[in-house]
Amino acid sequence: MTASIHVFAAPQASTPTLSSASIAGFTPDGGDDKDNDSQIKTTLFVDFGGGLVQTVASNNFEAHGRFPDGQSWGPIDIPVKGVFTIDDVAKLRGKIEFQPKGDDTWKFSYTLSLNFSDGRLIQKSGSNELSDQKREIPL
After folding, report:
1. Which pTM value belongs to this model?
2. Any idea what DSSP says for residue 33?
3. Which residues contact 118 (CB under 8 A, 6 or more apart)?
């Protein structure tokens, strides 16, 4: 008599993927608001080294209006550009680029929000400043 063994593999749960990203924040009092015509762009990416970079999410340069002192700004959507799994969050990098029209300095705090397909939300907060002299910061 031949014995048969049947092995049934459990279905693999799919790894949650990034479904949306946004950034919002606050411009504190102190005279360093973002001018109406100064544009910002936010990019999230993974740097694999050797010049290989995968853009995960990015928006275009836009003014989004004035971000006055003492007020909240955003949220600004950062459209997802490809598949990015929650397992790779530690590899994710980001930057904000600034294109002022003339002399503008903007001091701000921010919260970057990453929403995943399983409902998880991962956030990163910080503060910084951008100006006509300092046009890019890492997130």
Report:
1. 0.87
2. P
3. 16, 86
Q: End-to-end CA distance of the chain: give it in Å, rounded.
A: 66
pLDDT at residue 81, rounded to an integer: 94
Cα angle: 36, vertex 37, 39; to 5 degrees = 110
E strands present in 1-139: 18-27, 39-49, 52-58, 71-77, 92-99, 105-116, 121-131, 136-138
β-pairing, 52-58 vs 39-49, is antiparallel
Length of the chain in terms of residues written: 139
Q: Assess whether pLDDT exceeds 60 at residue 33.
A: yes
Report, in angstroms and rounded to the nearest whole number, the Rg of the chain calculated over CA atoms.
20
Q: Are the CB atoms for 42 and 95 separated by under 8 Å?
A: yes
- Average pLDDT of every residue of the chain: 91
> CA 2, CA 18: separation in Å to the nearest integer?
49
State the pLDDT at residue 14.
87
Q: What count of Cα atoms within 13 Å lies in the side-chain half-sphere of residue 137? A: 17
- Signed CA dihedral, 128, 134, 138, 139: sign only: positive
Cα 43 to Cα 41: distance, rounded to the nearest angstrom: 7
